[in-house]
Every structure is written in structure tokens, then in C-alpha cells.
Amino acid sequence: MKNNVVEYKKLQSGDDSKFSQLVLLFNKEFESPNLNFVNSKNIRNLLINPKFVCFVACIDNKIVGGLTAYELEMYDQEGSSMYIYDLAVGKEYQRNGIGSRLVHEIIDFCKSKGIQDLFVQADGVDQHAIKFYKKIGGEQSETFQFSFNPLQMK
């Protein structure tokens, strides 16, 4: 990896194929049961949504990492918060600063928009993610997440 130049890019409308590559990387790294599934319709819609942000890391036009985030407009404070939804770097490219740089890309983006709150969730069993976020300056908080499937609820 030493001789490879990593390029970082914020995806925009029309970058559907790059976003699709990132989704396939997410599927692989997150061990998704359907490794080849990409929802092309949603990808197109997300890339035109101004409240959705996606940064990718590329080497020789190959996506090697990326993150997705959502800007959440707040009703109880001025401005917005930014939520990092997914972040992954291909196993063979990890521990080279790519993940840290992706987080700094979203931090710089937030600064440019005056967004003061950026947050991300990590599962308690994912110690690798927890150590990573602590290492790059994240402050851990005690939060519990509850999930519901409305389609299965009475």
C-alpha cells in the first residue's frame, strides 16, 4: 500500500457506480448475508438528497473505503447534527490512516456547514470500532439503542 496514492472524494449525483462499489465493500466488511445486493434506486435517491453525505477513499479508481452520514435537522437547538451511519475500509487497506482521514473529511464538511455535533454508534461487541473511535478523539457515551420492526408489530 505504501506506493499507492489514496484519493478522497465526496460523492454527488451521478456517482451511482462509485456508491454501488462502496455498498459492495460494506456488504463484504460487515459480512452481509447478501453480499451482492445493491439497491440502485435508493442509491440514486440518496445521492440527490442534500441531507445525505458520502465520502469514499479510492486507490487507482478502486473504492477501498468510505463512509455515509445523514444530516439531522434539530428542533431543540440551532443548526443540525451529523450522524455517521456506516464507515468501513477494506481489510487489506486497514491500519493505514484511511478510516481516520474519512472521519476528518466529514469533520471538515461539518465545519464548513457550521454543524457542531457529529456522532456515530458502535456495537458493544465491535471492540475494533470502539478502539478506533476513541483513538481518533471520539468521546464514548452511555446510550442504549432500541430497534423495532413496525411490520412485525401488532
TrEMBL record:
<dbReference type="InterPro" id="IPR051556">
    <property type="entry name" value="N-term/lysine_N-AcTrnsfr"/>
</dbReference>
<protein>
    <submittedName>
        <fullName>GNAT family N-acetyltransferase</fullName>
    </submittedName>
</protein>
<keyword id="KW-0012">Acyltransferase</keyword>
<dbReference type="InterPro" id="IPR000182">
    <property type="entry name" value="GNAT_dom"/>
</dbReference>
<keyword id="KW-0808">Transferase</keyword>
<dbReference type="InterPro" id="IPR016181">
    <property type="entry name" value="Acyl_CoA_acyltransferase"/>
</dbReference>
<dbReference type="Pfam" id="PF00583">
    <property type="entry name" value="Acetyltransf_1"/>
</dbReference>
<feature type="domain" description="N-acetyltransferase">
    <location>
        <begin position="6"/>
        <end position="154"/>
    </location>
</feature>
